[in-house]
Amino acid sequence: MMAFPKSPGAGNDSITSLTERVRYLASHLARPTAPDRDRQRHWDEHLFKALIAAYGEGQTGVQTAAFLTALGEGSQDPGLALAVTTHTVLATAPLRSFGTSAQQERYLPQIAAGEWVGGLSLRQTQGAAFASTVSASAADDGWVLSGELEQVVLGNQAHHYLVIAEHSDGSRTAYLIDRDTAGLRVEETSTSAMHSCPWGRLSFDECRVSWEAVVGTVGAAVTETEPLLATLDWVFTSASWLGIMRALIDESLDTARTRDLFGAPLAHSQSVRFLLADLAIQDELAAGLLNRAAAQFVGDAAPSHQEAATARLFIASAVRAVAEGAAQLAGPAASTADGFVERAHRDALFFASTGGGADVLRPVIAASLLGLG
Fold first, then answer.
1. Burial (0-12, 13-18, 19+ Cβ within 10 Å), 57
2. Torsion angle of alpha carbons 271, 275, 276, 279, nearest 10°?
3. What is the model's pLDDT at position 3?
4. How many CA atoms, within 13 angstroms, populate the side-chain half-sphere of residue 348?
5. Mean pLDDT by 10-residue block, N- to C-terminus, for the chain (373 residues)?
6. Distance in angstroms (rounded) separating the CA atoms of residues 305 and 312
7. Per-residue exposure over 60-76, b if at least 16 CB sit within 10 Å of its own CB, e if not
8. Residue 348 burial by Cβ neighbours in a 10 Å radius (0-12, 13-18, 19+)
9. Please, where are the H alpha helices in the chain?
């Protein structure tokens, strides 16, 4: 089964309708509580399920990117958006692409309903740069896994996890492992950013999983699951940040219209107008790169690593530039009770460090240009 379906209903009208509906839902359900949830590191299960229900089933890659962009813009909550992206895309698309029919029949309906939440370590979305910290050895009744995984999105809230483990010969295999599997311990952790997203650590102590837990081909994760995970992360995690950028630009425009400097509105300042123009250009370029990369996810087609990495590298840089510009315009108001600009700036630094960062993305782009990858 393909990661994203082909759909004749993915036209502009369909995407506009989806975008407006999700933006409205996120702005009314998620945005009002975002500051408190971030401050208290609070996880709202009901809010998460409401957003999962809005996503529905059968969305194409372009529709999924539009959904996540609207979610980021409406919610103004990068942590919540990351949790939704991980469940709906990162932990699910590989199952659609490489899972057995039995796995798909068991998991996908529960995943779509939000009853079974899928978790994943962001350490495992770096493609060829990924260094496994979990080992797997064959046993009579399946596999024995040992090791640890950090930076697991959805941590204790997840029902199952997509895990990639390395064999003694250096090959790797992807597994779908339920949280209640004997030998698996899940610990709650925290990060310096994305506070509204649950985080965890997985510890595998002689964890035994059956042959049926394998996703894809044994020993072939490096050519199956890992490249797909990398492009999924680079494109769709970036989608919600495109929405965050747009919310920051809207905030900056409101500030320019309403804040005075030396008795005159900020909007009268030529330097402020130049800054606003630069922010708008960043948004336009980011949207173009993201939409082109998302359109690569059609049916069984292999998405372009070059376009996915280019979109991620540019958007990570653009997000930081827009967040810094918004903070510059907001001044002391960036640290007010709502604190959206301050939160976005903090989380943008974390976002730029994931997906391998520039040290991974630039070599991927260069290798593609040279015909080496």
1. exposed
2. 170
3. 75
4. 29
5. 62 78 95 95 95 88 95 97 97 96 96 95 83 91 95 97 96 97 96 95 96 96 94 97 97 89 82 94 97 88 88 96 91 69 92 87 92 78
6. 10
7. bbbbbbbbbbbbbbbbb
8. buried
9. 12-29, 34-40, 45-55, 61-75, 78-85, 93-98, 101-112, 225-232, 238-258, 270-294, 305-330, 340-353, 357-369
Structure tokens at 355: 């997906």
Are 191 and 133 a contacting pair, CB within 8 Å? no
d(CA 276, CA 267): 9
- Least Cα distance to 68 among 272, 321, 243 occurs for 243
pTM, two decimal places: 0.93
Helix axes of 270-294 and 61-75: crossing angle, nearest 10 degrees = 150
For CA atoms 328, 329, 332, 333, give the dihedral sign: negative
